[in-house]
Structures are given as C-alpha cells and as structure tokens.
C-alpha cells in the first residue's frame, strides 16, 4: 500500500454494520482506516467498532464528545478499551474537559479536537454569545486544545494552512472532493491532492468513494490523482 493510501480515511456513513463490512471488503487491500460517526454508532453501538477492528482496519471513532469532564473522561476510557486509533472531542468543552479526556486515555489512541463545525457561520457563533469570527475561533480553540494535550485537530481544508503555521500537531480534514466527483452538499471543498499539499495528515472522504458504483475504482482514481 502506498503512503498516500495510508492518509485516506473512508467515512462509513452507512446505516448498518452489514453495509459497513461490505464496503470494507470492497476496499480491502486499498484502504485500511475507516471513520465511524454518529449515524452508524447510534444504530449499531460498540459492536460495529469491534467488527471493523476485527477486519484488521483502523478506526477513527468520530463521536465529538462534549460533556462534563468526568463523563468525557469515562467515555474516553471506554473508547480506549475498544481499541480505536482515533477519537474526537469538542474543544468547546474547555480546558478542564480536554485535560480529563487526555488523562483518561489508556492506549495510544489519538485524541483529535473539533473546533468550530463548518456548518457554523459567524451568525451561529453570535447566537451562542461568541463574537469572534469563525476563523479566529478555530485558532483559539485549537490553541486551547494543543496547550491541554490533544494530539491534533479536525479542520476544514481551508483552515489547514493557518493551523499548520501555528501548530505541529496532526490535522485531519473532511470536505474533500476529487476533481471528477460531484460536490454533493459540500461547498468549500478541496481535492485530496490540494489538502495533502496544504499540510493535512489525514483526509476523510465519504460519498465520492462510498456512493461510487465501484468504490475500489474510486480509491484508485484518487490515488492516481494524488500521485500525478
Ligand atoms: O461529503 P463526504 O461524504 O465526503 O463527507 C465525509 C464525512 O465528513 C462525513 O462523515 C461528514 O459528516 C464529514 N464532514 C464533512 N465536512 C465537514 C466536517 C465533517 O463532510 N466540514
């Protein structure tokens, strides 16, 4: 497998464990890192995480934890016990919550922080009493996360450069579209190659691969595009 393939994480945004395992089977030998988010986890629970790990793949558990420090800490412990490689928390939870998450980790699992969701605009931040512009808030939260021990941040492709300039931590991005793919509902996307060139460590890709008639072919086209 090429190094570029190691940087691609496929989002298992599917309704059931069987759908997820079918997709993993189709991508076997090409992709070995998968993201399980709220849809699949709520439907199937930790069982689907164990099933994906049992295929030999790595798992990014994207639960975006945000609660009181003790509760987040105990949830991080449970995720560590499952054996996932990456977990997300919301940095909006503040320093005490972030430290509780970092301290509760038992394995080598990376903890990535979510700053401002890309669905949030300046107006959304104002609604909840934050007067910063989204870009400034992203940097503020990323700094808070890094100072309190997180391993990296989840970012939009357009934030990679400013985050890279400020921190050496891992950056995982989503909102990626290969040149040949439909944008779907993504508006400010980047191609896989642009995102890697800008400094992303991991690129999360969903529908261009999962909705492709031949997912394997989609991965091959993406790898070709990256290496061109
Ligand atoms: O659009 P696509 O199907 O590639 O989305 C892949 C994953 O990235 C989905 O799980 C989606 O929720 C997530 N995501 C995103 N854009 C963001 C943040 C997360 O598409 N800005």
| CATH-level-2 architecture | Alpha-Beta Barrel
| CATH first level | Alpha Beta
Supply the number of helical segments.
Answer: 12
Largest sheet: 8 strands, parallel, barrel
**How do the helices and strands follow one another from N- to C-terminus?**
HEHEHHEHEHEHHEHEHEHH
- Enumerate the distinct ligands: cytidine-5'-monophosphate
- What's the count of strands? 8
CATH superfamily: Aldolase class I
- The percent of residues in helical segments reads 40-55%
What class would the helix/strand composition place it in?
alpha/beta
Side-by-side strand order of the widest sheet: 1-2-3-4-5-6-7-8
The number of domains:
1
Distance between the termini: 17 Å
Beta-strand percentage range: 15-25%
Provide mean pLDDT, rounded: 95
Q: What gyration radius follows from the Cα positions, in whole Å?
A: 17 Å
Principal-axes geometry comes out as globular
Fill in the CATH topology.
TIM Barrel
Can you tell me the residue ranges where pLDDT is under 50 for at least 5 consecutive residues?
none
3D structure, described in words:
By secondary structure, this protein is of the alpha/beta class. It has one domain (3-227): Aldolase class I (TIM Barrel, Alpha-Beta Barrel), CATH 3.20.20. The protein has 12 helices and 8 strands. It has helices at residues 3-7, 17-26, 38-44, 46-54, 69-82, 94-104, 122-127, 134-147, 160-166, 192-198, 207-210, 215-227; strands at residues 8-11, 33-36, 58-65, 86-90, 110-114, 152-155, 170-173, 202-205. Strands 1-2-3-4-5-6-7-8 form an 8-stranded parallel β-barrel, surrounded by 7 helices. Helix 2 runs parallel beside helix 4. The radius of gyration is 17 Å and the shape is globular. The relative contact order is 0.14. The mean pLDDT is 95. The site of cytidine-5'-monophosphate has 13 residues, from strand 8. Cytidine-5'-monophosphate binds at residues 11, 13, 37, 118, 156, 174-175, 184, 186, 204-207.
């Amino acid at each position: 497998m090429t190094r570029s393939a190691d940087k691609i994480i496929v989002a298992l945004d599917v309704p059931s464990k069987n759908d997820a395992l079918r997709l993993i089977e189709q991508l076997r030998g090409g992709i070995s890192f998968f993201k399980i988010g709220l849809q699949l986890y709520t439907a199937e629970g930790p069982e689907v995480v164990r099933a994906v790990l049992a295929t030999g793949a790595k798992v990014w558990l994207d639960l975006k934890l945000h609660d009181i420090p003790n509760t987040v800490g105990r949830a991080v412990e449970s995720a560590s016990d499952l054996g996932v490689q990456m977990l997300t928390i919301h940095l909006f939870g503040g320093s005490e919550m972030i430290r509780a998450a970092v301290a509760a980790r038992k394995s080598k699992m990376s903890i990535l922080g979510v700053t401002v969701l890309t669905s949030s605009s300046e107006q959304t931040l104002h609604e909840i009493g934050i007067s910063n512009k989204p870009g400034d808030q992203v940097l503020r939260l990323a700094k808070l996360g890094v100072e309190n021990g997180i391993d990296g941040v989840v970012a939009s492709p357009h934030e990679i450069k400013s985050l890279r300039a400020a921190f050496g931590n891992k950056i995982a991005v989503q909102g990626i579209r290969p040149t040949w793919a439909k944008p779907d509902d993504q508006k400010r996307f980047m191609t896989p190659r642009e995102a890697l060139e800008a400094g992303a460590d991991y690129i999360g890709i969903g529908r261009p691969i999962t909705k492709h008639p031949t997912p394997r072919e989609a991965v091959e086209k993406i790898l070709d595009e990256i290496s061109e």
